[in-house]
Amino acid sequence: MPLKKGIRKVMVIGSGPIIIGQAAEFDYAGTQACRSLREEGLEVVLINSNPATIMTDSNMADRVYIEPLTPEFVTRVIRAERPDGLLPTLGGQVGLNLALQLAESGVLEEHGVQLLGTPLEAIKRAEDREMFKEMMQAIKEPIPESTIASTLEEAEIFAERIGLPLIIRPAYTLGGTGGGIAYTMDDLRATVTRGLKHSIIGQVLLERCVVGWKEIEYEVMRDGADNCITVCNMENIDPMGIHTGDSIVVAPSQTLSDREYHMLRNASLKIIRALGIEGGCNIQFALDPGSFQYYVIEVNPRVSRSSALASKATGYPIAKVAAKIAVGLTLDEIKNAVTGKTYACFEPSLDYVVIKYPRWPFDKFAKGDRALGTQMKATGEVMAINRTFEGALLKAVRSLEIGLDHLALPEAESLSQEELESRLENADDERLFLVAEGLRRGMTVERIYEITKIDRFFLGKIQGILRLEEQIRLASEKNGLTSQLLEQAKKFGFSDAFLARQTGLSEQEIRARRKACGILPAFKMVDTCAAEFEAETPYYYSSYDREDEAEVTGRRKVIVLGSGPIRIGQGIEFDYCSVHSVWALREEGYEAIIINNNPETVSTDFDTADRLYFEPLVAENVLNIIDREKPDGVIVQFGGQTAINLAKPLARAGVNILGTSVEDIDRAEDRERFDKLLIELGIPKPPGRTAFSVEEAYAIASEIGFPVLVRPSYVLGGRAMEIVYNNKELFDYMSSAVKVSPEYPVLVDKYIYGKELEVDAISDGADILIPGIMEHIERAGVHSGDSTAVYPPRVAGVRIGVTIYQLPA
After folding, report:
1. How far is the C-alpha of 338 from the C-alpha of 316, rounded, in Å?
2. Which terminus of the chain has a lower count of CB atoms within 10 Å, N or C?
């Protein structure tokens, strides 16, 4: 099919700042869309307000506007650029809501702008709760008994008629914002009031609660000729009642019968056709585990975080295909970029297991409400691929960077049985670890199923992990670990570090023994077609399997370490840096290899690097890849604190760290060494020094006087950095916020009230370039990531600027 008539210039709307429920997945989707449209010879105009994104790079679109995403500013750009079409479905809920406002205000019609992709009526049918309900009833797809309320009084009348609990879902919001489950009338009043405030049309859906049913998602594609495919189906390990963004998800589904799978697949195709969506959409179902009854819960008529997960899990580029569909191409005309042979109408087939595990911000907000419900709290997520469920789950745990490498939470051991069962019943971010603790204590699968409603299949798999764990413990106490047991442990996904703790050996000794026994990982390829066709894009994961599919080249190569899951203090900006690093290496003729585990990012797109490894960013997995690829070196500077923390263990293993040396990284990161460096260079610093115990911290604070700034070494985003004003606060900090010891020193500095400035610099080892200085509007003591900054500085004064520029390097 030719491109839609009259479409020469297309405007793409981004998603704005990173917020919970709307993160890097929309940079990934927007970047793919811009590239996809330009491949078709179209001029692309982009508007977004987030400078940390790849999509706002000058080479991504023909014109980039970094402006607020409001109807007023988007209208200005439309008037200036006169685009023929507007593509809003790749900018998350922000883009969708803007499209609705621009269309209803008459701006699009006034300037002759065609809404591309999913039609406006289809967006309304999916997003407007009343219209969605009517359409589902018209096509005879079951939905929970529900009502639309625009006032609190309407909500109360419905609750009195059908009873509680009820789920409240505001219209036109993302991540379940403003919604929740009401178990009491007080809950109902509070949640409805909040939901009406968050909805741009002042509307909430109240529906019968199906908490405890299975939650199943289908990612579906449709083109303008009514061709439809399901890209991927996903099963939430957590039952209904927890937002899918906060749920641990497995793809493909593991517990559905063939009848259930095809029943929901057929319903998905029926729904996307009835809605008239052109592009991708995500459909969520609740399935009764005791019968074939199901309900349609929600449809997202746009790409979402689940779309990014489905794309990376299958290798099928959903946003790229959706953009081409939007300008008139059909699925049978769009070539599959992974195989280079099949077309986009070819449904992906998986011969492996994928697990998505959310990453929550409770390390930053230790006193925050950890309870999980219908309102999303995760800031990011990791994805793990393996040939078995067990291997993928343990790989996902290692990828989270929460200080754990196994399904074992040390704090759980101190819980009473009553406390444990209470926490299992009321889901929080540690629930799966608590499930493992319950099984270790002898709780039966049936008992844990009764409490959690997590399917018995998944509980049985966790129980299998724990049985092998016990075998290893007993073998270590008797005759030591046999090569057969070691191989079985690796196939189950046990880490070298965990096995070292179990056996009393060092991690290096376990690694050496494993290699001596020939127990090495094989690298398998993600190819969208279960090896039916040969893939052209090298995209790998490790598994302790026999056949290795990674064909290593003899070219000069460099590995770039990514930054893992998005969390507070380490966001999309490091993905931006990693991607630019890869592009620069490719320009210089190197084979660029990236290692990362974040499915939302551009860095894990199938064609960003020459080779992609979807693996945990821990020493064991990175060294396995290095052993296989034998690169000239590894770059750690662009993956945030995640990559920096790997510099020492990699260097100890003989890996060549490119760029800033490990020694110099340590001088910058180690607070005590950095202090000494400043003194040597004669650069003024606040009085203070390093404490290796609580007593030393008291002594330093009494010597220099309160308030003091306390902070550990090697942390990101100011984690565990605080201003304390007295001895009690200092004691609380030292006893709870950090682990202080000779291995974990804490710097205690005099806190100085004043102005904060920051400098970015780049050096080739001889020459130094300082692009400029940023001035914080807030006083010193507010983290730079939370400060409003202005560039160039306005009131700092010429003398201060010159002093900073002339400080010795």
Report:
1. 8
2. C
417-425 and 445-452 are packed helices; what angle lies between their axes, rounded to 10 degrees?
Answer: 50
Distance of CA 322 to the CA centre of its chain: 21
**CA–CA separation, 305 and 237 (whole Å):** 17
Per CATH, the architecture of 214-304 is what?
Answer: 2-Layer Sandwich (3.30)
Q: Which residues of the chain have pLDDT under 70?
A: 1-2, 174-176, 338-340, 528-536, 713-719, 736-744, 795-809
The DSSP symbol for 734 reads: I
Amino acid at 47: I
Could you please state the CATH topology (level 3) that the domain comprising 670-752 is classified under.
Dna Ligase; domain 1 (3.30.1490)
Give helix 120-127 / helix 92-104 axis angle, nearest 10°: 120
3-state secondary structure 423-462: HHHCCECCHHHHHHHHHHCCCCHHHHHHHHCCCHHHHHHH
- 305 three-class SS: helix
What span, in angstroms and rounded, lies between the C-alpha atoms of 315 and 339?
A: 10
Residues in CB range of 90: below 8 A, 6 or more apart: 12, 13, 26, 29, 30, 32, 33, 302, 303, 319, 322, 323
CA 530 and chain centroid, separation? 25
CB within 8 A of 157, min separation 6: which ones? none
Burial of 270 (0-12, 13-18, 19+ CB in 10 A): middle
Neighbours of 370 (CB within 10 A): 17
CATH class belonging to 9-116: alpha beta
Q: Tell me how far apart the alpha carbons of residues 41 and 35 are, in angstroms, rounded to a whole number.
A: 10
Q: What is the reported pLDDT for 288?
A: 96
Fold of the CATH domain 145-208: Dna Ligase; domain 1 (3.30.1490)
Q: What are the two backbone dihedrals, phi and then psi, of residue 16, each rounded to the nearest 5 degrees?
A: 80, -155
CATH class given for the domain over 522-667: alpha beta
Report yes or no: 265 and 377 within 8 Å, Cβ to Cβ: no
Q: Is the N-terminal amide bond of 252 cis, ω within 30° of 0? A: yes
CA angle 313, 225, 261 (to 5 degrees): 40
From 280, 293, 170, select the one nearest 218 (Cα to Cα).
280
The architecture (CATH level 2) of 401-516 comes to Orthogonal Bundle (1.10)
The pLDDT of residue 701:
92
Q: Computed from CA positions of residues 218, 223, 225, 227, in that sequence, does the dihedral angle turn out positive or negative?
A: negative
Q: Which pLDDT does position 1 carry in this prediction?
A: 47
How far apart, in whole angstroms, are the C-alpha atoms of residue 237 and residue 231? 20
The answer to whether 145-208 and 670-752 have equal CATH topology is yes
CA distance 648 to 569: 22
Q: What share of the chain is helix, strand, coil (3-state, %, to 5)?
A: 40, 20, 40
Token representation of residue 8:
């020469």
Which pLDDT value is given to residue 715? 57
Give the DSSP H/E element, type plus range, for residue 746: strand 746-750
Residue 717 has a pLDDT of: 47
Q: List phi, psi (to 5°) of 126.
A: -85, -35
- Residue ranges covered by each domain of the chain: 9-116, 145-208, 214-304, 401-516, 522-667, 670-752, 756-805
In angstroms, the CA 745 to CA 711 distance is 9
Predicted local confidence at residue 743, as pLDDT: 60
What's 499's DSSP letter? H
Return the structure tokens found at 646: 């790997």
User: CA 374, 309, 206 angle in degrees (round to 5)?
Assistant: 20
Residue 719 in contact with residue 361, Cβ under 8 Å?
A: no
